[in-house]
Amino acid sequence: MKNLLILGMLLTSSNVFASKFDSLKSLSNTKLEVARTQMVALEIVTHSDFKKVAVLKAKGATAQKQREATVAQAMHTLCPYFDDGVAVGVNTKDEQGTLAAITDFTESMQISSGDSDYDKLFTVVTTVNSESSIEVYSGSTSGNNTYGTVLGFYDTKTNELAVFANSNCGRDD
Q: Where does the UniProt annotation place the signal sequence (predicted)?
């Protein structure tokens, strides 16, 4: 009985630092909603989601680190095989940050400037990264027979986010 009680406490407390999300029909920031729609239309985006952060409750010494953990948490739900974790970081609000996000997201792809999806991705990320209230996150993830690259946009004014992945999500290809 004691072991069951301890197990129950662990299961109950394992999400103590997890943010809570609400579903949305669309994002309230028009520019972010347009960017989300454009991202979903890209062939290189295999998984996507968008959410309202109802409760920002993540590990982190600063609000930005808590948002980073929350973006990673949302990305983790894109594919059930992302069980080795999601490694993301926030990008700077300049051309270098835009290029870093694009490089992270296209890391495992054979595309570059001049390719249709790359150029559209560049336009979307440039537009989003120019918005003062939106943070751009990028990185990678892995898991059981899975590798992926991820990109996320977090609107600090509305506490809404949009997350995207390019992943085989457990397939052997």
A: 1-18
Residue 144 amino acid letter:
N
CA atoms within 13 A on the CB side of 114: 2
Query: Any idea where the domains of the chain sit in the sequence?
Result: 17-167
Whose structure tokens read 């594919």? 79
Architecture of domain 17-167: 3-Layer(aba) Sandwich (3.40)
Closest to 150 in 3D by CA, of 97, 83, 82, 93: 82
Q: How many C-beta atoms lie closer than 10 Å to residue 162's C-beta?
A: 27
Task: Give the pair of three-digit tokens for residue 113.
Answer: 């400037």
Beta strands in 8-82 (DSSP E): 20-22, 47-55
